[in-house]
């Protein structure tokens, strides 16, 4: 416990699934957590859960594809807490990831980039001065095993997520001298729609991950002192779906 004591963390896409589980775990470990999500009801619910458990949270409704909203969100966090130590880029638009390559429109691809690497770039740039001042800044971005595998039917999503990994590797090298680590997580998790017709997993452990037990703890590791010498990496919290192929 208290592995993130006195830290301030921003978690995007924190209204549900992996983001929600991460925000709650960070708060339980002592962080003050900014809960960013597009849906006000989800923001309020997660903040209430954190505060009900004795943690500290700030709810911020934010469309991460909107540059002005991203800036306003970061300003709100700094005004409230005075610092930013950890940035978790988890949000994306779940309504537009699916398309074959032959049918993919530029507009759909652009939407995946707007809510993926472009949004992540904006949050990283906005948080950078504070992460540098922290002296132990942490950025954790969400890539995807789908991009590594070239999963069929996910053309725009795969392309955007691999761009996130390229951004992460580059920032890891550029920001290392500032004592900021930048890493990826590539999860395999059935996050919020357990009633969906999800195909059986073919990973080594033969199951999907639970956000709260299998993915959020990996995010916590990368945010903690334990990962101080890890940067530019892609950690595959996927039960062995892409063993040795994420580099």
Provide a short characterization of the protein structure:
With 247 residues, the protein is an alpha/beta fold. The chain has helices spanning 17-28, 40-52, 67-81, 106-114, 117-134, 145-149, 155-175, 211-223; strands at residues 8-12, 32-37, 56-61, 86-89, 137-142, 180-185, 234-235.
Q: Any overview of this molecule?
A:
With 247 residues, the chain is α/β, with parallel strands linked by helices. The protein has a single domain, classed as NAD(P)-binding Rossmann-like Domain (Rossmann fold, 3-Layer(aba) Sandwich). It has eight helices and seven strands, in the order βαβαβαβααβααβαβ. A seven-stranded parallel β-sheet has the order 3-2-1-4-5-6-7, with helices on both faces. Helix 1 links the parallel strand 1 and strand 2. Helix 1 crosses helix 8 and helix 4 runs parallel beside helix 7. About 2% of the residues have low confidence. Belongs to the short-chain dehydrogenases/reductases (SDR) family. InterPro entries: KR_dom, NAD(P)-bd_dom_sf, Sc_DH/Rdtase_CS, SDR_fam. It comes from Bradyrhizobium macuxiense. This is NAD(P)-dependent dehydrogenase (Short-subunit alcohol dehydrogenase family). Keywords: Oxidoreductase.
């Amino acid at each position: 416990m208290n592995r993130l004591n006195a830290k301030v963390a921003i978690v995007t896409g924190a209204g549900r699934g992996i983001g929600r589980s991460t925000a709650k775990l960070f708060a339980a470990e002592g962080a003050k957590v900014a809960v960013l999500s597009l849906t006000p009801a989800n923001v309020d619910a997660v903040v209430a859960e954190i505060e009900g458990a004795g943690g500290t949270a700030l709810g911020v409704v934010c469309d991460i594809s909107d540059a002005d909203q991203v800036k306003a969100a970061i300003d709100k966090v700094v005004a409230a807490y005075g610092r930013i130590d950890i940035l978790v880029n988890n949000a994306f638009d779940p309504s537009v990831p699916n398309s074959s390559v032959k049918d993919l429109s530029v507009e759909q691809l652009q939407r995946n980039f707007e809510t993926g690497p472009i949004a992540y770039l904006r949050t990283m740039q906005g948080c950078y001065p504070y992460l540098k001042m922290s002296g132990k800044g942490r950025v954790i971005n969400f890539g995807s095993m789908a991009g590594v595998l070239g999963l069929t039917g996910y053309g725009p999503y795969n392309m955007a997520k691999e761009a996130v990994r390229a951004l992460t590797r580059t920032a890891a090298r550029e920001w290392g001298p500032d004592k900021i680590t930048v890493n990826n997580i590539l999860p395999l998790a059935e996050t919020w729609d357990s009633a969906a017709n999800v195909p059986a997993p073919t990973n080594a452990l033969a199951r999907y991950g639970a956000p709260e037990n299998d993915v959020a703890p990996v995010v916590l590791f990368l945010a903690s002192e334990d990962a101080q010498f890890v940067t530019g990496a892609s950690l595959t919290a996927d039960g062995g779906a892409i063993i040795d192929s994420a580099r």
